[in-house]
Specification:
The chain is of the alpha/beta class. The chain is 37% helix and 20% strand. It has a seven-stranded mixed β-sheet with strand order 14-15-16-13-12-17-18, with helices on both faces. A six-stranded mixed β-sheet has the order 9-8-7-10-11-19, sandwiched between helices. A three-stranded antiparallel β-sheet has the order 5-6-20, with no helix packed on it. The model has no long low-confidence stretch (mean pLDDT 97). The structure holds succinic acid.
Length: 492
């Protein structure tokens, strides 16, 4: 079932599917248990998708294995053409796809459209990279032999993707897999299956052979369990919490899988005394309030130098107070709803804990007057490292502000976490920029910008923020095996 209010808003409904895509076939939902999908802005059911059982996952794995045989031999140029077609279909239907995303995920239409463009950029990027999977020859220590290195697709890949970027996080895994010559099974988050199922439809339209892609809806335990215990699946790529990432590491041990993990973050955002305060305010808002604060790379802790602390806060409050909260489909909305009640409870818990430990709420601090899953953009000062908000990822629209005096002190505070995904800072002194970039223990550093994500750059973290990189020229490596051939016995 798909709610008619939902379909009525789309100019073209052929990309909106509520059937799972199993080995190139759309599921017959009459025979399946179904699960509800809600609009987080209204908490109303917008449709249902299948909750697949083990046997369906096994069928998809078998189909992926069979398809892998031909797909790995398909010339890179052909794989590239298909990826490009998929990218252009995303762009062609951008408005409808953005609407589907906003209705199931909550983000503003503007952000949803930007995400579809971001998704297409990964497919185009990997369409180009597919043609550059180069090997090597290595000078041999022995005269009668050659050392030849080739790169081969790793095989069948499984992807487990989150609700916060329900299209782009699929594109960045699926793009790499298809480019490398792997078949791929995608398990989207239960909150946002419709943006994922779009890929089944565009794959069909672009001519991707059946079985190379499956989109499997259902619960994480059943599907994740089948993925990690399968000997056919050679790699799992996961974006989500550190807690689930650790579970996947354990579960995949028995089959020794390759894992790519893009896990939680707790990004510091530092404003040094020589920074442009106006630029830093804009960057902090871009980083903190994108997707209502629900990204792994959101600024989680904002450190401001004592000399400019008051001025920064004055300007920051003014701009944050002007952000419009509302249903993502409404015009001019900057901050949509949070995904669900549990997400709100986490933010409230951090705020209450911070107040008890000396924090002061200068803006927001509570649920928005719209009710449901809406939360007011919040600024809290007097933050310190005894607070939960310094130690946990917030994943919500809360800006805690910490005051600091020295470079040494702020680097120590910024690194005082088990996370290591993204970090940001604003400064002008070149020596300081270099020193601080080196000292921060993070996989990605934004200097004088709050926005770092792009298909061309390697996205990923260190410490408990993950393993591997996505996008960029490095992103394909995770989907390839290195093969060494020692060619001996040749006449010279
Ligand atoms: C994420 O939050 O997981 C991804 C954000 C991005 O790609 O910018």
């Amino acid at each position: 079932m798909i709610n008619t209010n939902f379909t009525a808003q789309l100019s073209n409904t052929h990309l909106l599917k509520n059937q799972a895509y199993i080995g190139g076939e759309w599921s017959d939902n009459k025979k399946l248990a179904m699960m509800n999908v809600l609009n987080p802005a209204t908490n109303k059911v917008i449709g249902q998708v299948p909750s697949l059982e083990k046997k369906h996952i096994q069928k998809a794995i078998k189909a992926a294995k069979a398809a892998q045989v031909g797909w790995r031999k398909t010339p890179a140029t052909q794989r590239s053409i298909i990826l490009r077609k998929m990218a252009s279909l995303l762009i062609k239907h951008k408005q409808d796809l953005a609407l589907i995303m906003t209705i199931e995920q909550g983000k503003s239409l503007l952000e949803a459209e930007a995400e579809i463009t971001y998704s297409a950029s990964f497919l185009n990027w990997f369409a180009e990279e597919a043609r550059r999977i180069y090997g090597d020859t290595i000078p041999s220590p022995l005269a009668d032999r050659k050392i030849i290195i080739t790169k081969e697709p790793i095989g069948v890949v499984a992807a487990i993707t989150p609700w916060n970027f329900p299209s782009a996080m699929i594109a960045r895994k699926l793009g790499a897999a298809i480019a490398a010559g792997c078949s791929i099974l995608v398990k989207p988050a239960p909150q946002t299956p419709f943006s994922a199922l779009v890929y089944g439809k565009i794959a069909e339209l672009a001519g991707l052979p059946k079985g190379v892609l499956s989109i499997l809806t259902g619960d994480a335990i059943t599907i994740g369990g089948e993925f990690s215990s399968s000997n056919i699946i050679r790699k799992i790529s996961f974006t989500g919490s550190t807690e689930v990432g650790k579970l996947l590491i354990k579960q995949s041990a028995s089959t020794v899988k390759r894992l790519s993990l893009e896990l939680g973050g707790n990004a510091p955002f530092i404003v040094f005394s020589d920074a442009s305060i106006d630029d830093a305010v804009i960057g902090a808002i871009q980083s903190k309030y994108r997707n209502s604060g629900q990204t792994c790379v959101c600024a989680n802790r904002i450190y401001v130098h004592a000399k400019i602390y008051d001025e920064f806060i004055k300007k920051y409050i003014k701009k944050v107070a002007a952000l419009k909260v509302g249903n993502g489909t409404d015009k001019g909305v900057d901050i949509g709803p949070m995904i669900d009640e549990a997400a709100i409870l986490k933010v409230e818990n951090q705020i209450n804990d911070a107040i008890q430990k000396g924090g002061e709420v200068l803006l927001g601090g509570s649920r928005h007057e719209l009710g449901l899953n809406f939360f007011s953009p919040t600024i809290l000062t007097g933050a310190n490292h005894s607070m939960l908000l310094a130690n946990e990822e917030t994943f919500g629209p809360l800006s805690p502000i910490f005051k600091f005096e020295t470079e040494e002190e702020v680097i120590k505070l910024a690194n005082d976490t088990n996370f290591g995904l993204a970090a940001y800072f604003y400064a002008r002194d070149v020596g300081l920029i270099w020193r601080v970039s080196e000292a921060l223990e993070y996989g990605m550093i934004g200097v004088n910008t709050g926005s770092i994500s792009t298909a061309e750059a390697p996205f990923g973290g260190i410490k408990q923020s993950g393993i591997g990189r996505e996008g960029s020229k490095y992103g394909l490596d995770d989907y390839l095996e290195i093969k060494y051939m020692c060619l001996a016995g040749i006449d010279q």
